[in-house]
Amino acid sequence: MSAWQQTLSDLGLRALGLGSPVISGSWVSPENAIPTINDAFTLSTVTGQKWIAPLTGIVRSVADVSCIVLPDGTFPAPDSPVFQISPHVYLRLLRLQAKAIETPNTSPPTIRPVPCYFVYRDAAWQGTGGAAKRDYVAGEALEIGNGKLTIHDDAGIPIHPLCVASTFVRLMQTWPDLQARDLGATPKLVADLQLSKILPTTAPSKIYLHCVDLHGYPVTTALSTTSGVVSEAVGLGLYSVDSAQTWTASQPNVRLGQGTIGKLSSAVV
Fold first, then answer.
1. CA distances (Å), 109 to each of 89, 96, 105, in order?
2. Is the pLDDT of residue 170 over 80?
3. Of 201, 236, 259, which residue sits at a domain end?
């Protein structure tokens, strides 16, 4: 932690900022490093790089969080580090995301892919005696190095890192003061942030769909009564449709995954 963060901690004032939805523009240190994202919902680093707290939260181990399901339906090792966003920050993130990228509506609540847990697999704990298991503020270096990152919502279902990165970039563009920075510093240009640099330079031509069952396991045999649904990652429940694809059925009649014709049965239909 920086000198001013340590001073605030020593004075007991650091807790006053734990509910602030400040967002880090980097997930990996050094800031000029560009982590690799693949279609398996995973972000990878190279040896020597350290992870950065994406928001304010606490580091725990997977054994303390029972709901995490990996993209392939398996579970991470119990001793894997997991960063959990502070509950107060998570609630504010819900509202900010709704305000920034959704249109007002009176329909039932939207199920949003809002990040809650950042799980680090094959990573090295750099703290000893559980010292790494503590609270961190956004932008602070975690005591976790190397490995792979998957991001999960509050139900433990994985969210693609590009989805999270693009959402965070949008929030920092809309409200520059949300960008984590040193005391007295001005926000950086969003285009210069690490999160902006890992995003594609052109808009995707596809709409991606992640299909899971009620337990969070990937649906690997998704069927559709419409054409244009393509499997993007075998065994991970990731599908896509062309952005120009239109469906003539009304929204309540469109189904993807198991039971697409609305027939209750003990078999997959």
1. 20, 15, 9
2. yes
3. 201
